[in-house]
Amino acid sequence: MLEIGDRKTALLALTLLVPAASIGIITGLYIAPGGWGKTVSALCQLWLLLFPIAWCVLVDRQKLHLSLPKRRELRAGAIWGIAMFAVIVGIYSLFGQHWIDPVAAKEKARQLGTNSQNIYLIVEAYFVLVNSLIEEFTWRWFVCNKCQILIPGKPAIFLSSLFFTLHHIFVIAAYSDWRAVILGSFAVFTAGIIWSHCYLTYRSLWPSYISHAIADLALAMIAWQILFN
């Protein structure tokens, strides 16, 4: 049975971690979309990776380990990823292309320094292959587990997905109108639920990481079309 102290510790961990994602996004996209904003955003991204590792080793006294993916984990990740890819492309084709202002998106890309095709490809390769893994490590392995301590059971999945969605709201709002913000936030929240469920089912990040990477690939392809076509 969980002690009150365990819940307080989990709440402290979430309090120290979750806001960092929104702070980085708000600073980098709104307050200072230049060199200083990029620095703050990068530091927040680093915090989202290093804090869970430090907490695991120093507070929880656990050892980190990496396991090779099992066939069923690869299959689940591919199935969910392909399904998400199709949904993302379908939603963009039906609604998104009418709600996203390409001029505003190109200006934001210019401010961030990603308006060059080569730079964009490098940045998106990082987001598809690396950042999706970091997000799964942070939001599923760490945040979802801490939410399970705070409120055990299915509510923890919804709470961790809500935390995961918060900073994405600011990202979507920077490039589109309120309709896309509502639809996009709901999509991110739903994806968070699916990925949390995958993690808790398989106790492995491979299914959620693979599907997350495929979903991010769909977004990268859409963004390419908006910025360079």
Report on the structure:
α3 packs parallel to α8 (206-228) and α7 (178-202) packs antiparallel against α8 (206-228). The chain has helices at residues 4-31, 35-58, 71-99, 102-112, 117-150, 154-175, 178-202, 206-228. It has one domain. The chain has eight helices and no strands. The protein is globular and about 55 Å long. It is mainly alpha-helical. The mean pLDDT is 92. 86% of the residues lie in helices and 0% in strands.
What characteristics describe this protein?
single chain, 229 residues, mainly alpha
Percent of residues in β-strands = under 5%
Radius of gyration: 18 Å
Order of helices and strands: HHHHHHHH
The computed structural class is mainly alpha
Number of domains: 1
Spatial gap, N to C terminus: 57 Å
Q: What profile does the largest beta sheet have?
A: none
Identify low-pLDDT runs: none
Query: Helix proportion of residues, in percent?
Result: over 70%
Average pLDDT, to the nearest integer?
Answer: 92
Number of helices: 8
Looking at the structure, what is the overall shape?
globular
Quantity of strands, as a count: 0
